[in-house]
Amino acid sequence: MALYSDKVMDHFRNPRNVGTIEDADAVGEAGNAKCGDIMKMYFKIEDEVLADVKFETFGCGSAIASSSMATELIKGKPLSEVEQLTNKAVAEALDGLPDYKMHCSVLAEEAIKSALEDYYTKHPEKKKQ
Ligand code: FES
Q1: What is the mean pLDDT of residues 43-72?
Q2: May I ask the CATH class of domain 6-119?
Q3: 97/115 Cα distance (integer angstroms)
Q4: E strands, the chain, in order
Q5: Would you place residue 126 in the very low, low, confident or very high pLDDT band (cuts 50, 70, 90)?
Q6: 10 Å Cβ neighbour count for 15?
Q7: Whose CA is nearest to atom 1 of ligand 1?
Q8: Residue 109: CB within 6 Å of ligand 1?
C-alpha cells in the first residue's frame, strides 16, 4: 500500500486556499517544536460564519495537505462548527495519515483553534458559554 493516500498527494500538490487575507478578522498560528513546522490560518468572518479562510504552511507535505483539507472542511461553516473540527476528522478526510505523521494534522486543528481564540479575544461578546 502506498504510504500516502491519493487525497494526501492531491492536496499536497494542489493545495486549496493557500495565501493570506489582508484584512483578516482573525489570525492563528501553530508550530511543532520537534520538526520546526509552522502553520498560519487567516479567517474572514461574517455573521458568525467563516466566509473565507486562507493558510500558509512552512512544513512537510502532510502538514500542507492537512491545512488544505482543514480549510475545505471549515470554509463557509458557522463558527460553532469550525470549533468542533478535530485533527482526526482532518486525517480521516484525507483517507488517513501514517501514524508518525498524525502530528501534522494536529497543527491544523491547533492553528484553527488559535485563530478562533484570536477572534474571541477581539470580540469577547461573541463567545457563547
Ligand atoms: Fe512536522 Fe509534518 S513533520 S508537521
Answers
A1: 97
A2: alpha beta
A3: 24
A4: 26-31, 38-46, 49-58
A5: confident
A6: 19
A7: 35
A8: no
